[in-house]
Design brief:
By secondary structure, the chain is α/β, with parallel strands linked by helices. It folds into two domains: 131 residues, no CATH class; 279 residues, Metallo-beta-lactamase, Chain A (4-Layer Sandwich). A seven-stranded mixed sheet has the order 14-13-12-11-10-9-22, covered by helices on one side. A seven-stranded mixed sheet has the order 15-16-17-18-19-20-21, with helices on one face. A four-stranded antiparallel sheet has the order 3-2-6-7, covered by helices on one side. The radius of gyration is 24 Å and the shape is globular.
Length: 539
């Protein structure tokens, strides 16, 4: 290859499909509760540091647990004994750099205990003079209608670069989807073939890099933009290729009806010739020949991204950052403002660099070309916590109505009777049936200010509908088509979900029963996996 050819190839390179662009917080893969500051403080103090200290003190327990595939998704650091020193270094660095966050978490728990022990219905005004320093100007103390004391956090005031900006990092590494460790238990240590950058997630340089997934750019320009140190240039260069990515189909839809493409889990793209709406984007990056749609099958411009709730498999910072340059507007549900268990999704998206984010209350709607998108509530999947930031969606396009029930548990079928009186005929229903989810503490333990006993913990799960409840919903909706989705079984979801079904898993047994019930009643029903494409004619 002559010098001119070499230079041409360097100036037309793509970011490789197997290179993961991971946003890290304190070396852990970012998820919503590591971006919102109060929740980050609680997770550092009461989950991440104790987990790392457990590994450093007794790595053998973690190493042994990780040999059992059933333990994937558990509280075990997936590293080796040789990594103990690196983990100890993370512990010490985190304690120093995040001392203000640790102080905030301890102050929150301390104030909560004080209120529960002493606030008996008298005025709380005197408490402001005695607030711990980390909470001054950041909280309101109040009673609920049953005279139980509570703390409201002024969440927006906590988004301060001095407190959280230093925790952000971007790690680029060539790691296969099957080799990714569980997001919540294992820090990313990096390797000789990885490169990391200390930078805020909102940094616009990430848009330039992410665009090189699908459009070629200059290697020299991107190297200079990121100021890659000379010693990291060989590893950085290996992350790019001159081979263009493939597409599994036409990204732009120009038909007269509505096209729906399933990208795995809860990620669904709905398109007409005038608008595109993408739900809960967690998409595959690697182009494996198994029929999947990938990031490369998304349109270059996405009018709306709809995020349905604040769980890592629905609001995924890693994928959202790589789509940011393509997205027009983001739609999120409103939250229980100031609650430690219910951070604002709008503020999280702002921290991720999204400028156009609309918060929707129940039954708010957005006008679309030849239709509308309407938000409405769903129950379940949040362990009975007082969380508002979750919504289902009724999408009307070209005379067709599609109901996305997300992870609703379907326990109150009367709600759907009421909805049907308002909504009218539905053409297709999309429903999650992860009917035996993880217990409360799996996700929320660091945010709880009082311990919960095992029996109560096991009873309060992150669960959706089983067959009986799903059928009760379908009877009320009377839709001719039903699609089970959001089951988390695609191979690129494993590092986020921490579960893998077997044929005798209750989730598959229950969803099979639901599919058979639908079939017996003349309803077309499927359980999605991997990819699926459908077209609905306009009416």
């Amino acid at each position: 290859m002559n010098d001119m050819t070499t230079q041409a190839s360097i100036d037309a390179v793509f970011l490789k499909n197997d290179v993961k662009l991971e946003p890290l917080v304190c070396k852990f893969l970012a998820w919503p509760h590591l971006i919102s500051p109060a929740q980050l403080a609680m997770n550092i103090t009461y989950r991440l540091l104790p987990l790392l200290e457990s590994f450093a003190d007794n790595p053998g327990v973690h190493i042994s647990a990780n040999k059992d595939p059933q333990m994937f998704g558990g509280p075990f650091v997936c590293l080796n004994e040789a990594d103990v020193d690196a983990v100890r270094a993370i512990i010490e660095e985190t304690k120093v750099s995040c001392k203000d966050l640790v102080a905030l978490a301890e102050a929150l728990r301390g104030l909560d205990a004080t209120l529960l022990g002493n606030a008996t219905g008298f005025s709380l005004g005197d408490y402001y003079a005695t607030l711990p320093e980390p909470l001054r100007g950041l909280v309101e103390v109040l009673y609920d209608i049953n005279n139980r004391p509570n703390i409201r956090i002024f969440e927006d005031l906590l988004y301060d670069d001095a407190m959280t900006g230093h925790t952000h990092e971007i790690l680029l590494s060539p790691v296969g989807e099957g080799d990714r460790t569980f997001f919540m238990s294992t820090p990313r240590l990096g390797s000789p073939d990885s490169v990391s950058f200390k930078m805020k997630f909102s940094d616009p340089r990430l848009d330039t890099l992410s665009a090189m997934r699908t459009a070629p750019g200059s290697f020299d320009a991107i190297r200079k933009l990121f100021d890659v140190p000379e010693e990291d240039v060989p590893a950085f260069r290996n992350m790019f290729t001159t081979t263009p990515p493939k597409s599994a189909g036409t990204q732009v839809y120009q038909g007269e009806g509505v096209r729906i493409r399933y990208f795995g889990h809860a990620c669904v793209l709905v398109q007409t010739d005038e608008v595109s709406i993408l739900f809960d984007p967690v998409v595959a990056l690697e182009q494996i020949d198994d029929g999947r749609f990938t990031l490369h099958d998304l349109p270059e411009h996405i009018d709306y991204v709809v995020l349905t709730h604040c769980h890592q498999d629905h609001l995924c910072p890693e994928i959202l950052l790589q789509l940011r340059h393509r997205v027009g507007r983001v739609l999120v549900p409103s939250n229980n403002s100031g609650s430690i268990v219910d951070p604002s999704m709008k503020l999280i998206m702002r921290e991720l660099g999204f400028e156009h984010v609309d918060m929707m209350n129940a039954f708010d709607s957005i006008e679309l070309p030849h239709g509308e998108l309407l938000s409405f509530p769903f129950t379940g999947e949040h362990s009975d916590l007082d969380i508002y930031s979750k919504h289902s969606i009724l999408l009307t396009l070209k005379g067709r109505k599609f109901m996305f029930l997300i992870d609703s548990d379907g326990r109150d079928e009367v709600m759907y009777q009421r909805l049907m009186r308002r909504f009218g005929k539905i053409d297709a229903v999309f429903l999650g049936m992860e009917c035996d989810g993880a217990p409360l503490t799996w996700l929320y333990e660091p945010l709880l200010t009082k311990p919960i006993n095992r029996r109560n913990n096991e009873s309060r799960r992150l669960s959706g509908a089983d067959s009986a409840r799903a059928w009760n919903v379908m009877k009320e909706l009377n839709a001719p088509q039903a699609y089970v989705y959001a089951m988390g079984q695609e191979p690129w979801m494993r590092y986020l979900m921490g579960l893998e079904y077997t044929p005798d898993s209750i989730q598959l047994i229950e969803s099979n029963k639901f599919l058979k019930q639908c079939e017996s009643e003349g309803i077309h029903a499927e359980r999605f996996f991997g990819s699926r494409e459908m077209e609905f004619f306009a009416v």
